[in-house]
Specification:
Largest sheet: 8 strands, antiparallel
Bound molecules: fructose -6-phosphate
Number of strands: 25
Shape: globular
Helix content: 25-40%
């Protein structure tokens, strides 16, 4: 996790670096820091908490500089504190920022301590500064960086400056994203092009093992063998309006209300008049799909829920079985790969460490091919998969995923139709789904109208500490997503169950103190769901039911919120919307920092803190 940025320019860079950090707060916001070169010394400012605290320090100190590096942190190793904030320094000579995890931290720290280096933090990053210093000879920062990274195991994107060079940054990448932003009389380095959106549209993405020297009017890249290489410049127009809140109070609110447009962006140029278009997953994908006998989905969190919904569609539309796995678990067992299995990752960011590691692990197995459904075209996942479908949701800034999820669902419908088409299955069903998808933006708009009714029920839910979410069939993963939204932004404990499971245990939780949120669309399971809800009513439970036309269902305690009538295949997408709105208003009511909830970060680019990094209490 964490976001890093660096700049070499002919103008002052302090403000540019701070602006870039603000755009990368989705990567973490436990602390932030900056190092600015000032001819005879380097000024380092660090602050606990969000980037705003660092910006306040900058306003107080007003340092001026044309070369600098900066960092926003999500703590993995060492608690959030000023001492653990980046940049880290060695002998007031070398300053570095780092994103990633150094796995051989213990051995390297011991070695450096034995040769006299003193450590000022509990991070695994500080050793990188000392290691570069240890290798620094003849004023050659690049060579010192190249020697240092040879000793590192783990993942890193690093940017470094040294006191002897007021005009250059040296950067390095391995398994953590890093790119160069190419400007006029200035060049930059950053974890994400979004951080540089207002500065340039030209980006060079580094590959694993690359190092580079970045100056204001030039940059040079070296591969893992230290050989000078050319890497392609990618032109990207990143809309800056999509990284501001506009008329909305929070990014999450804006992103919820953007969903008619984001769904329409996902569909653009992918649907013909009666069917999905060919090869929307890239040239040659139709041939792969004609041989696909089953699907292995791997993803995390919200994206995993999308895969669980997708399973129902693949079984019904494409007639093929699906397995859905947590990316964090998948590679720690020995999955048996059956003939003709397509490996599919789902990820908003395309940088989630667990999902990327699962993809890399899968490449050594006998999968038919790898495919990714991803929102970030420049991401590692997109670049490393054989086939990709971009969800085109636009930047999602709120930590809780909303429009990324619904566009993943739309993409999965397109994938299941594409596979069915390649195998000549269910043409009439495909035509019906095409029609439903064309109506989707309007149907999402109608479901956004539930906002007023939902605002009325939020105070009652906001005062509770627990909630239960119920759904059946394809709506079970939708209520799992609803429960995840509520817990991550309102800090209310929420659990989701398939309603038929209630009687096997969770019914014991039901009394008048626990709100129970249920989805009750019109489908084959409606009657069964209603009888499950009757069981809850009989135990005095407070029900908040979202449904269509079940006027016969009366609620003694709680509310019934009518949903617009919607067709079968798009219904899971439509029913997601009120659960997002509910979580949003409950969190607003509780006054949480809902765009940046505690302990979380938007893009989880580390697996976890390695066990060997923890100091365990010794037995008395
Ligand atoms: C929750 C949320 C997370 C992400 C998960 C995977 O609202 O956003 O659960 O879905 O961290 O992230 P991506 O999709 O970027 O791989």
């Amino acid at each position: 996790m964490c976001g890093i940025i660096g700049a070499a320019s002919s103008r002052n860079v302090g403000k540019l670096l701070i602006q870039g950090l603000h755009k990368m707060e989705y990567r973490g916001y436990d602390s932030a820091g900056i190092a600015l070169h000032q001819k005879d010394h380097v000024t380092r400012l660090r602050a606990l908490g969000k980037v705003q605290a660092l910006e306040d320090l900058m306003i107080e100190h007003k340092p001026k500089s044309k070369l600098g590096i900066a960092h926003t942190r999500w703590a993995t190793h060492g608690k959030p504190s000023e001492a653990n904030a980046h940049p880290h320094a060695s002998s007031e000579q070398i300053y570095i920022v780092h994103n990633g995890i150094i796995e051989n931290y213990k051995e390297l720290t011991k070695k450096l301590k034995d040769s006299g280096y003193q450590f000022a933090s509990q991070t695994d990053s500080e050793l990188i500064a000392h290691l570069i210093h240890h290798h620094y000879k003849n004023n050659d920062l690049l060579c010192a960086m190249q020697l240092a990274i040879k000793e590192l195991e783990g993942a890193y994107a690093i940017a470094a400056v040294d006191l002897n060079h007021k005009d250059q940054l040296v950067i390095a990448r391995y398994k953590s994203p890093l790119l160069i932003g190419v400007g006029i009389e200035e060049n930059f380095a950053a974890s994400d092009p979004l951080a540089l959106a207002q500065l340039t549209s030209d980006f060079v993405f580094l590959e694993d093992g690359d190092t580079a020297v970045v100056k204001k009017d030039s940059y040079e890249i070296f591969d893992a063998k230290s050989k000078s290489v050319n890497r392609e410049v990618t032109h990207l127009d990143i809309e800056t309006s999509s990284v501001t809140k506009g008329e909305f109070s929070h990014f999450m609110e804006k992103e919820i209300f953007e969903q008619p447009q984001s769904a329409s962006n996902t569909l653009e140029s992918r649907l013909g008049s009666n069917d999905v278009l060919d090869n929307i997953f890239g040239l040659g994908s139709s041939e792969i799909f004609s041989e696909t006998k089953r699907i292995q989905f791997v993803a995390c969190g919200t994206s995993l829920h999308a895969g669980k919904v997708g399973r129902f569609w693949f079984e019904e539309i494409a007639g093929i079985p699906c397995y859905v796995d947590f990316a964090s678990e998948y590679r720690y067992r020995n999955p048996l790969v059956e003939d003709g299995t397509l490996f599919v990752t789902i990820s908003q960011s395309g940088e989630t460490a667990d999902t990327l590691a699962a993809l890399r692990y899968a490449k050594d197995k006998d999968y038919l091919s790898t495919l990714s459904i991803c929102n970030v075209p420049t991401s590692s996942l997109a670049r490393e998969s054989d086939h990709v479908l971009f969800t085109n949701a636009g930047p999602e800034i709120g930590v809780a995923s909303t429009k990324a999820f619904t566009t993943q669902l739309v993409s999965l419908l397109l994938l299941s139709m594409s596979i069915a088409k390649s195998q000549d299955k269910n043409p009439i069903m495909r035509e019906a789904i095409t029609k439903e998808l064309k109506d989707l933006p309007a149907a999402i708009n109608a479901s956004l109208d539930t906002k007023t009714a939902i605002q009325k029920i939020t105070p009652a839910i906001a005062e509770k500490n627990n909630a239960l979410f119920l759904g059946r069939g394809i709506f079970f993963p939708i209520v799992q997503e609803g429960a995840l939204k509520l817990k991550e932004i309102s800090y209310i404990h929420a659990e989701a169950y398939p309603a038929g499971e209630l009687k096997h245990g969770p019914l014991a939780l039901v009394d008048d103190s626990i709100p129970i949120v249920a989805l009750s669309p019109e489908n084959d399971l409606t009657e069964k769901l209603i009888s499950n809800l009757e069981e809850v009513k009989a135990r005095g439970g407070t029900l908040y039911v979202f449904g269509e036309g079940q006027d016969q269902f009366t609620i003694d305690s709680g509310s019934y919120i009518g949903m617009p009538k919607c067709n079968k295949f798009i219904a899971p997408i439509i029913y997601t919307i009120p659960l997002q709105i509910l979580a949003y208003y409950v969190a607003c009511h509780r006054g949480t920092d809902l765009d940046q909830p505690r302990n979380l970060a938007k893009s989880v680019t580390v697996e976890s803190v390695s066990y060997t990094h923890l100091t365990l209490p010794t037995k008395a």
